[in-house]
Write a structure and sequence with these properties.
2 copies of one chain form a homodimer.
Chain A (H helix, E strand, L loop, with lengths): L3 H4 L3 E2 L2 E2 H13 L5 E12 L2 E11 L2 E13 L14 H24 L3 E13 L16 E10 L3 H12 L3 H8 L3 E6 L2
Antiparallel strand pairs in A: 1-2, 3-4, 4-5, 6-7
Helix pairs in contact in A: 3-4, 3-5
Chain lengths: ~190, ~190
Amino acid sequence: MKTMQQNETVVRNGVDVTALMGAIQAISQDTTLADFVFRSENKWMDGGHNRSMIRDFYGVGSDQMREVTFTMDADEPSVLLGFDRGANPVEYILHALAACVTTTTVYHAAARGIRIDRIESKLEGNLDLRGLLAMPGATRNGYEKVVFTMKIEGSGTPEEMAEIVRFGQSHSPVFDIVSNGTMIDVRVESF
Amino acid sequence: MKTMQQNETVVRNGVDVTALMGAIQAISQDTTLADFVFRSENKWMDGGHNRSMIRDFYGVGSDQMREVTFTMDADEPSVLLGFDRGANPVEYILHALAACVTTTTVYHAAARGIRIDRIESKLEGNLDLRGLLAMPGATRNGYEKVVFTMKIEGSGTPEEMAEIVRFGQSHSPVFDIVSNGTMIDVRVESF
């Protein structure tokens, strides 16, 4: 017979903490449930314009469909010979970084009982265009450095809030991907 | 007196090659024109949902406004305790990678006189969720590996088309950012 206690779920910071704890428990019993494969398809449209579609992924032991298909357009501004039909690829990197450190922080704060009231971030990445243009002189093709300033407010002291951000940063998948580098196996095929 | 010849512009693969060559010429005379700073702002909404806005950047010597403000929503699927209000951060990384290698390939092909007819890519990234969850056993928090399969068709032989993709890959800012790693300076502040 179920009691009220057993039916209660704790939702904190918009995160179902009961489900989060259940997931950790399930993975600790069957570690294959932690194996995820994320997928994306991209199609070149014209010039600097291309479009990605995200429909499904593999996780918790089987293929999973997203509820909707996500479409993302990339393009360049006019000074980079595009027509502003979307953010550009390096701008998407800044979004992915902010999004991942924010989510990882919010989830771990929820698990620890810390209430988050507000998080806002600003990111800036410096890039020397000579790398992309195959001109001599650039130290690298990508960002020389990203400065990521996050403001956070919640139930902890400023020190506790800063500490939960550090914990989020040090467990964020995108922070790891970008800061530590990731093996990319590029395979070129004909149609 | 202008002649027809001087007014002609070459547009190939949707890229204004005349403007591209002009930009390279201008940067070779004033290398500060190659200094770009891309910017993004992100705001946490609820749970795994947050939103980035991209409005402006610095480049070719001054601040530049995008023609429109780009808004991007990140969220998680239900098995990751979200509500599918957007692609998730690691999926945005796959989009940024595909978009950047595609654009870099298309631009350099245009400069070389190679016509591109079609480019389509599929990307997959493997991730062990135990990293994000701060559970023992994961080799890292981010993608263990990304497999990036690009199909390309154009005016060159399959070997020439593969070579231009390799050139695009080796000059793509996002490919460099992700494969070689990038310094990220995270600063935490109170409101």
